[in-house]
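Researcher: Please predict.
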Amino acid sequence: MNSSRAAARAWEGDGPLGRSLRLLGSVEDAILVFLLAVMIGLASWQIVARNVLETAIIWADPLLRTLVLWVGFFGAVAAARDDRQINVDVMSRFLDEPWRSRIRVVTDFFTALVSGFLAWQAYRFVQDAREYGEIAFSSIPLWLTASVLPVAFTLLSVRYLLLTGFHLRQSFGGKTDE
């Protein structure tokens, strides 16, 4: 198992935490597949409706934009879960273990902190939108369309905290393979 996959699955052992994380990953994947299917279906219908039937669903375009946001965030969560996110890290290419893992401890922890901060601010945004009764499109409230933000940032923060723990253990010679 390569180091990336080991880090991604390090906390998914046979215990309750591991089973919970696998279940959470399955739920995330199911949501992602559902959202993509809805996007493809709705976009296809819009194309057919506009070009063949000379009509369209008036709320489809704003819904598609919202679904792009949701798919993007759930995709980011899935990438973090599998430790396959985009990163630009020049230093780790030239360093050997354990220094590579020590750098990952710092970057993962920083990412977890930033994601946690963004989760809190997104939660406040959603609460404000709910309190003020803002509408995103049609009669869909803004807080509902933006609710992906605190959920995704919280999941990202948790995932990066887990990766921080994995890389911390790895940087001091801990066993990392399953």
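Model: The longest strand covers residues 135-137.
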